[in-house]
Amino acid sequence: MTDPKPTDRADAAKPVRTITDLARIAGVSAGTVSRALSGNSLVNTKTREKIEAIAREHGFRPNQMASRLRRQKTGVIGVAIPLGHDVQQQISDTFFMTLLGFLADELTAKGYDLMLRRVVPSNDEDWLDRFIGSGMIDGVVVIGQSDQFERIEEVADGYLPMVVWGNHQEGQRHCVVGTDNRLGGKLAAERLIAAGATSLAFLGDTDPIEFAARFGGAKEVADKRNVPIRALPTHLSPGQVSSEIAAHLEVIQHEADGVFAATDTIAATCLQEMRTKGIVVPNHVKLVGFDDLPIASQTMPPLTTIKQDIAAGAKGLVDLLLRRMAGEDTESLVLPPHLVARQTA
Prior knowledge:
The protein is an alpha/beta fold and 345 residues long.
């Protein structure tokens, strides 16, 4: 039998006061420890017995209030917004606030309160397990997959009452509600080309799954029509978006006469920067956004955009979550996008 590693001895010597301490010693997530100690059958017998043995060895007793809340209903739904792809983005972003408003209305109508968390996953790898294992919520809605697709998939294997706003792809295990982003990208490119654009630019970060699907759909159409398209990375954080778009316009003025913005927020900022540079929309450049947020009809000129039905999405999130809280393993809900033609393309 080999001697324990120095780090193992150091971990074992530390006092065990929380589920996180116990998870560190057991080499599992905090969520797994929480489920094991509450007798959840989703944790396999070997892992549960290992965790229980370590807990006994260290005299660990889970917080009684948390245990009581896990056994009973709290009347609270957790809402987490992971921002691994853009840590400076704020939840005051117009899209988040619009979706949260509809979501809060739906939850209130069903008798639930909402607990909101903005998460930077690089600072807390167990952010989702920790939230679920807190004992403070009955279920969780995750808004956006960010760069956390695999983490969400892992949690979905052992936790049923979770629904995610995001992009659906074949074979995924977590339940998602969202728009057919690839089809939305196709509609945007088709509109720009029909309006006379001969070269396209995409403004957005193509790392997040939803934005990648939007760009992928636009590129598919552009390639079929032999129209060049170029992605120009653009972030949503207030400190970056204006300066990035200003720099991109130097390229767009020489290389593109059609712009597909990944969101209406980016599109609205693009309109402002174009006005500053004397670029006339749609005479010089055609522009299409994505979301159909309230701001889309208020820009000058009003923004042509791809509508995703955020109100229907919020209702779908709550309906599916309540069914999953009741023990049903539901299918995902993919909503169709629609072109809203205004004056920018």
